[in-house]
Amino acid sequence: MQNRNLQVIQLALESGTEGYDNHSIATVNDHEIRISTMTEPYVWHYHPDSDESFLALEGGLLIDFEDGTVELLPGHMITVGRGVLHRTRPIGQRSVNLTFERMNARTEFVA
């Protein structure tokens, strides 16, 4: 094995997080991979300088847009384009998903 700087990442799907927890677990080139665990909706927002991809892992995820809602079940993935207003909500009691976006992407919140 030539690359000795490899790091294995263990996804903590069984965390007891209540509410909303979203933190970085890895970087790839100029992008960040984050794991999100939620038991309640996140707020309306958009990213003016980055697309954002969601991969549902557990429980499923609803993504609300101004003109409707998309349902992601475990194994489903979608990309939300930069500048598109959205919010996420868990399906059922809890949702775990991965997000992929440009590092240091700005988030603009909408009241």
Instruction: Output the CATH topology.
Output: Jelly Rolls
CATH class: Mainly Beta
What CATH architecture label applies? Answer: Sandwich
Characterize the main sheet.
Answer: 5 strands, antiparallel
What is the helix content?
under 10%
The total tally of domains equals 1
Oligomeric state of shown chains: single chain
* Main structural class: mainly beta
User: What is the straight-line distance between the termini?
Assistant: 51 Å
Which stretches are low in confidence, meaning pLDDT under 50 for 5 or more residues running? none
Notes on the protein architecture:
The protein is mainly β and 111 residues long. The chain has strands at residues 20-28, 31-38, 45-46, 52-58, 61-65, 68-72, 77-80, 86-90, 95-102, 108-109. The protein has one domain (20-109): Jelly Rolls. It is built from no helices and ten strands. A five-stranded antiparallel β-sheet has the order 1-2-9-4-7, with no helix packed on it. It is globular. The mean pLDDT is 91.
